Amino acid sequence: MSAQRGPRMVLLGKQGSGKGTQGERLAEHFSMQHLSTGQMFRDSASAGVKVGLEAKAFMDRGELVPDDLVVAVVAERFQNPREVTPGFVLDGFPRTEQQALELDRILGQHPIDIVIDLDVPTDVVVERMRSRGREDDTEESIRRRLELYETETKPLVDFYRQRSVLVTIDGLGTEDEVHAAMLDAVAHRFSD
Ligand code: AMP
Question: Is the CB of 95 under 6 A from ligand 1?
């Protein structure tokens, strides 16, 4: 990795695995943007923007926002070089194979460098989601999101493993331990 560029990263992992917290810390560490599609939708919904309000109807039920809506929002961010230079941390995108293929298209000649799968057992993420008290964290939506994680998002672990960019990190340590493990993984990826 040259001094001019930071890593292009994707964080995979169940909701409640710590992607948001860790994504922010990584972005700060490398002075780059933390791009969370969930946060983009929450911000635009609370600002009353149409795309956010459309997305909110899906989010509140624990459903995935349709691919075309999510991809449009991400593609727009990537049009602005300042958002994605020197690198970026994508948190919560891609969540389906279709989104992963669209991300390839958006990135063109500069593909993702490293995909970190933050591994936390289901019973632990359920407890974390119950206690964070976010508006979309009802019992029913928590259950539905975990189901969709298994069917739609988990296949991306293999998708990226086949490309040799996948690293799995145990997300059960302290916040500092997980952060340190992530930095090690990035350093290792760029060491050869
Ligand atoms: P998060 O902030 O990552 O927990 O996402 C909150 C909610 O936003 C999810 O439960 C989905 O409804 C929606 N969402 C965020 N990112 C995506 C995505 N890449 N694809 C589909 N839906 C998404």
Answer: yes
Q: What average pLDDT does the chain have?
A: 95
| Cβ–ligand 1 contact at 70 (below 6 Å) | yes
What is the whole-number distance in angstroms between the Cα of residue 2 and the centre of ligand 1?
32
| Nearest C-alpha neighbor of 21 from the set 192, 182, 141, 157 | 182
List domains and CATH numbers for the chain.
Answer: 8-187 (3.40.50.300)
Query: What is the spatial distance between Cα 21 and Cα 187, in angstroms, rounded to a whole number?
Result: 20
Contact 164, 4 (CB under 8 A): no
Ligand 1, atom 8, residue with closest C-alpha: 38
Confidence of residue 3 (pLDDT cuts 50, 70, 90): very low
Q: What is the mean pLDDT of residues 163-172?
A: 97
β-strands 166-170, 114-119 pairing: parallel
